[in-house]
Each structure stands twice: as structure tokens, then as C-alpha cells.
Specification:
The protein is an all-alpha fold. It contains 9 helices and no strands.
């Protein structure tokens, strides 16, 4: 996951970092690497603190990935703070780097995860990476037993991350999904 994230940071880093006169050229690579690491740790922090509704909105494509999105705002604050602290960038310069990278990177992650032509990267990998691997057990159980409980939300014949995302965003949310799975 970090490799894919680093690839996206490099892909979108030209405008936000390399062509940014506030970032010294000799720090371009280090700034991009720090931005990628900060984004990943910020996503993990959100999951650890239970902030999955906002992430679900982004991962499901239901909410726009822009400066008004709470996930983008939290990540922007984290990346801006880290870049200012580690590289001495002004808050304006660090904010412009974060604001230029984060929406594009999140959009790129979601697009890669949803793209069937990206066989080494899927939504389950993304959830597993940002949940520290703790999402895997739940996804395994849902995949194994979900069809028996009517959890195939998109009627594609299998229960996968797409079904979990659909169930979480529907009425009843995650509690309803787990209730169906465990017969409550």
C-alpha cells in the first residue's frame, strides 16, 4: 500500500512540490516522502479513533474529495504540520503542498482500488492497510458467510468490500450489517 501511495505522491508531486518555489529543490523527494507517510498515518489515526463514516464516504465515492471534506481537512492539517516541523516550511507553503497533493492522492487511491485492471490493488488492500490489518478478519467473515445472510448488496454473486461499503452507507450502517451476519 505504501508503494502505491508513494507512486501517487510522485505522480501528483510535480505541481505541489517540485514546481513550488517555497520548497527547496534538494528537499523535493524528502517532502514528497514525508507527505505520503503523513497521509497514510493520518488515515490510520482516523480508523483508530473510530472516524470511519467520513472515510466510508470517500471510499464509496459518495462524498467529493475536496477541501470541504473532513478527511481532506484532517489530512491537510497533519501534513501541513509535519512539513512545517520537519522542513521549516511556512504554514502557507506547507499548506499549499498538502492542499495540492491530498485530494489528488485520495482520488487516485480510490480509483486504483475500484479499477479491475489493477489486480495488485483493491479496496480490501486499502482497508487492510489503513486499519492496520484489523479489517481483514471482518472482511474474511463477511466473504465466507455473507451470502447466506443476504449481504450481497450489489447482487454480483459474491460478498466483498463493495458490499460492505454499500451496507455501511445504507440505513442500519455497520451495526445492521453485523447484526445480519451474526443473526441479531
Amino acid at each position: 500500500m505504501f508503494d502505491q501511495l508513494s507512486e501517487l505522491v510522485k505522480q501528483f508531486g510535480d505541481n505541489a512540490v517540485v514546481n513550488n518555489p517555497a520548497v527547496p529543490n534538494e528537499q523535493n523527494d524528502a517532502v514528497m516522502q514525508e507527505a505520503g507517510g503523513s497521509i497514510l498515518s493520518g488515515l490510520k489515526d482516523m480508523v483508530a479513533s473510530g472516524n470511519i463514516n467520513d472515510l466510508t464516504g470517500i471510499l464509496s465515492g459518495k462524498t467529493p474529495i475536496d477541501g470541504n471534506n473532513p478527511v481532506v481537512q484532517q489530512l491537510t492539517e497533519k501534513v501541513t504540520g509535519n512539513l512545517g516541523e520537519k522542513f521549516g516550511l511556512s504554514s502557507d507553503a506547507a499548506g499549499s503542498v498538502a492542499g495540492g497533493l491530498i485530494p489528488q492522492i485520495l482520488g487516485g487511491l480510490v480509483n486504483k482500488a475500484k479499477d479491475p485492471n489493477q489486480p495488485g490493488f483493491n479496496m480490501s488492500d486499502l482497508v487492510s492497510a489503513i486499519s492496520g490489518g484489523n479489517g481483514g478478519g471482518l472482511m474474511d467473515a463477511v466473504s465466507k458467510y455473507g451470502g447466506q445472510f443476504g449481504l450481497d448488496q450489489n447482487n454480483d454473486g459474491k460478498v466483498d468490500m463493495g458490499d460492505a461499503m454499500a451496507a455501511v452507507t445504507k440505513k442500519g450502517g455497520l451495526g445492521g450489517l453485523l447484526g445480519k451476519l451474526f443473526g441479531k
